[in-house]
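Quick one, probably user error.
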């Protein structure tokens, strides 16, 4: 695999990030939507993450610098009673899976979350995404529960596994 550029997202990345998320969403297997949110909504979300200094990491194709091949972000949860928690979102374009890139993105985002004193990072993942679940477990996430039949897209229903990584030293 080529050397990949991993860095903090920039506002100018929004169109490429939108394209990457849309590609993964249209697979209809991994994300909770059939397509990416409108680019304007995504721009607002990314701008908010960047303004808050929250982890917003992208992987850029070295042969096509305008192409984002993966992303990982951790956003503070709301309301105030959950501000110590972060919500993880991540994904990779199909050709870039299985090469350790997800682990690299996730490690950078988690290191930043620790520096921001998130004491808990949580996520939802469909139960048949065994590669992602294995990655999350290797990175310290534990299984907390299953929401049976909670994911439904294109007439397919699946279970969602809830996972979290706690950092007791930050509690």
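Nope, works fine. Designed sequence:
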């Amino acid at each position: 695999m080529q050397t990949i550029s991993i860095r903090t997202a920039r506002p100018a990345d929004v169109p490429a990030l939108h394209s990457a998320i849309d590609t993964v969403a249209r697979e209809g297997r991994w994300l909770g939507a059939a397509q990416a949110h409108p680019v304007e909504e995504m721009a607002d979300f990314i701008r908010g993450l960047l303004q808050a200094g929250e982890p917003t990491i992208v992987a850029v194709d070295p042969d096509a610098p305008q192409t984002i091949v993966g992303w990982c972000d951790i956003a503070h949860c709301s309301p105030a009673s959950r501000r110590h928690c972060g919500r993880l979102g991540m994904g990779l374009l199909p050709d870039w899976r299985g090469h350790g890139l997800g682990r690299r993105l996730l490690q950078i985002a988690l290191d930043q979350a620790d520096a921001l004193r998130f004491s808990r990072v949580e996520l939802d993942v469909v139960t048949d995404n065994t590669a992602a679940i294995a990655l999350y477990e290797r990175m310290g996430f534990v299984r907390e529960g299953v929401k049976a039949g909670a994911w439904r897209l294109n007439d397919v229903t699946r279970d969602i596994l809830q996972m979290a990584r706690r950092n007791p030293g930050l509690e």
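Helices lie at 14-26, 39-52, 101-115, 130-138.
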